[in-house]
Amino acid sequence: MKKSLLALLALLAGANVSSQNHRLSEQLGNLKSVSAVKAGFNLTVSNAFISVIAYNSTTIRIRATRQKPNIDESFAIDNLTPGGELKIQTNNANQLVLATDSLHVTIQKNPIRISISNKQGKELCSDDAGLGISWYGDQVSCYKKLHADEKFIGLGEKTGGLNRRGQYYQHWNSDVPAYALDADPIYSTVPFFVGIHNDVCYGIFFDNSNRSYFNFGGGADENVFHFGANDGEMNYYFFGGSTVAQIIKDYTQLTGRTPMPALWSLGFQQSRWGYDSPEQILNIAKTFREKKLPADVMVCDINYMDHYKIFTWSDKFPDVKGFMNNLKGIGFDVVTIVDPGIKIEKGYKSYEEGVKNNYFAKYPNGDLYVGSVWPGRCHFPDFTRTEVRNWWGNSFKTSHVDNGIRGFWNDMNEPAAWGREFPNLIEFGEGKDKQTLYSVKNAYGSLMARATYEGTKRLMNGQRPFVLTRAAYAGVQKYSAQWTGDNASTDDHMLLGVRLLNSMALSGIPYVGMDIGGFMGNPSAELFTRWMSISAYSPLFRNHTAIDFHYREPWLFNDQTTDRIRKILEQRYQMMPHLYSAFYQAHTTGMPVNRMLPIDYTFEEDVYKREFENEFMFGDGMLVCPVASTQNMISVYLPGETKWYRLSQDNILYEGGKSYNVDAPLTDLPVFVKEGSVIPMQSVVQNTKEKCDGTLYLHVWKGETGSEYVYYEDDGETYQYEQNSFYKRKISYNPETNSVSLSAVEGTYKSKFSKLQIVLHGFGKQHSFRVQDLINGQMKIVLNLNI
Ligand code: GLC
């Protein structure tokens, strides 16, 4: 009855009922007009407006909208100004062509199809000849040709295998506790991937924060892959750099790079949901010191607050300053959690301020949105607005920053509420900037992290804050580290975690980590030990568990495990100069710290095999092969044409390009070093603030090929490095002259190391070895070792 009435009304209104119920897709159509603009073309086609613009010689932006575009905005990119120089910009009868120094873009006119090749003329990526860009309702998609040997890597925090080929993924930031090994989506959205085929590679960043999808040839014809979003624009950046490193560099030039992290945050972090008193936290910190287990951070989860009210402390912490001083006194920093939900409670400062100043997200009728999280019924800050981000940032002053807290953990920012889905129509922004949850959700976590980072940085008098977030959008690396949320205490989850971290790192976010031991569950001593040994090679090194599970401080298993963990912690602290130098690369080029093997060994088939897909490089020269705790042997693939040493043994050389079965006892994770590498290390310290023995140990592994290592150091605490206050030198190993040379120092910072010691590996007995130090432009031989 109701249906037929609707049909009648629709008929009267002249609408076509059957076509509304059975919608067909809409194609771009043919070219109507074209205008050459700076670094590209603007096109009007039958059903859309398109622009194709060079951002630099290896980055092309392609944007298609059904309405004439008037706003141009991004949650990931701060500067949308194109800067590409074109060599060719022509308009022929059938085609438009633009060429940069590196790329050749051809736009076929009727129908519109875009194809990009490199300067050798090799095809990198082309629209599917039959499909190209199209709409289905508001969903916009782009269909691309899929090559027979094509592989896909990246897409940020996505479960599953390293190679994304044949899979379908969605971006819709979600709180998924104890997620399944193939759960999708989980917490974050980084719509950036790299495609690899026929000895070429390219990257695509689809900058659309609405619910989006990527289908890498799954469930569709093997000739096509496609991606799209349920709303918004087809707006993507194409990266045609000839190496994965160059693609990452261009992607992070666009979306930003990590600032240098606070050194203390790279130490071991001890966390647990449930620590709820200063005495308990201090006791645990003291036990680390008594047992000589190096550590830097105690983490306060939600129990430190008064009824989970953000920017408050529970009355169990009557003297926060005293508590902080006690911890600082034994070399600990504190990281505290904050969630976005502000409890609805009369008299609670943050609630009152938020309501009074109109800072919370609303329904379209103006009512404030209410969702329930830890504190009960809550309102949620509208982080899209600058004044709200400023308010949030300033709110850390009295409760946190004035008490000496320098670490801020942002959680539940998908945003999450019990019952999971917020209504899509909730509104953010004001006036012409208004938008709904649908386009804000995937960016909400990044916006919160931005508000936290910018605010605490402002308050901290030049000190670097440490921010950690669960939800994120592309570009979050400018503000925050990210962890992989509520994982589970199983071997499979540990190994999945490695892949998540490697994929997030490839996708521009270098400061990543997972809950060691698994958030949900009780790991065996073996699993915990193995997890610690793998995570010693993870930028964020944090033990965390949920309230319902056993306490898991490292000494609670048995003495043997405590001893093993001590060794792992000591090794982490010894590697700090290497880790920090690797972060310098991330800061300046986007090259991550943990590097999946396709970054350096893109065209070696074996690196994509399931059995080897978890392996990764940790900075330059070190290759880590994760192993389940239940295995004490493993098959590893050692890539490339160079040889490899095992870190724990100098006497065996393994040839690259082959796989080997190697021992993998719990006490010796298989880690390899590339021949000819130089890796700087330091003495064991109990925390990053403790003085080391003053010697920088330069480990050198003999090889037929040389290497160049950029050693970097600064004060680890402030932003003085932006004013040239750093200590940077190139350290080169030359196999022909059997020498290591140190370039002149760049920067004005005085190194904390006053001595240098060379530690030789694999040189045998019969060599003499030289160390050359370039001082005042003169190469000086400071050491001649006869061994
Ligand atoms: C969320 C976080 C977890 C935290 C818990 C309590 O589940 O992911 O790490 O411990 O909330 O705050």
Biggest β-sheet strands, sense, barrel: 9 strands, parallel
How big is the Rg? 27 Å
Q: Strand percentage, roughly?
A: 25-35%
Bound molecules: alpha-D-glucopyranose
Number of strands: 51
> What is the 3D form?
globular
Helix fraction bin: 10-25%
State the end-to-end CA separation.
Answer: 96 Å
Structural class: alpha+beta
The unreliable regions are 1-18
Number of helices: 14
The main sheet orders its strands as: 33-32-30-27-23-22-21-35-34
Kindly report the average pLDDT value.
94
Which oligomeric state applies? single chain
Provide an overview of this structure.
This protein has 787 residues and is of the alpha+beta class. The protein has 14 helices and 51 strands. A hairpin with a 2-residue loop joins strand 16 and strand 17. It is globular and about 75 Å long. Residues 1-18 have low confidence and may be disordered.
What labels describe this entry?
alpha+beta, 8-stranded antiparallel sheet, disordered N terminus, globular, binds alpha-D-glucopyranose, 787 residues, single chain, 9-stranded parallel sheet, 30% strand
What is the element layout, followed by pairings?
Elements: H1 2-12, H2 17-21, E1 26-27, E2 31-37, E3 40-45, E4 48-56, E5 59-65, E6 88-91, E7 95-99, E8 103-108, E9 113-118, E10 123-126, E11 133-136, E12 139-145, E13 151-154, E14 168-171, E15 188-189, E16 192-197, E17 200-206, E18 212-215, E19 224-229, E20 234-239, H3 244-255, E21 269-270, H4 278-290, E22 297-300, H5 320-329, E23 333-338, E24 342-343, H6 349-356, E25 371-373, E26 376-379, H7 386-394, H8 396-399, E27 407-410, E28 427-428, E29 435-436, H9 437-459, E30 466-469, E31 472-473, E32 481-483, H10 491-506, E33 512-513, E34 515-516, H11 525-535, E35 542-543, H12 559-574, H13 576-589, E36 594-596, H14 597-600, E37 616-618, E38 622-624, E39 633-638, E40 643-646, E41 649-655, E42 658-663, E43 671-674, E44 678-681, E45 695-701, E46 707-713, E47 727-734, E48 739-742, E49 755-761, E50 768-775, E51 778-786
Parallel strand pairs: 15-31, 21-22, 21-35, 22-23, 23-27, 27-30, 30-32, 32-33, 34-35, 45-49, 48-50
Antiparallel strand pairs: 1-11, 2-3, 3-4, 4-5, 5-20, 6-7, 7-8, 8-9, 9-10, 11-12, 12-19, 13-16, 14-18, 16-17, 17-20, 18-19, 24-26, 25-26, 28-29, 36-37, 37-38, 38-43, 39-42, 40-41, 40-43, 44-45, 46-47, 47-48, 50-51
Helix pairs in contact: 4-5, 7-9, 11-12
Bound molecules: alpha-D-glucopyranose.
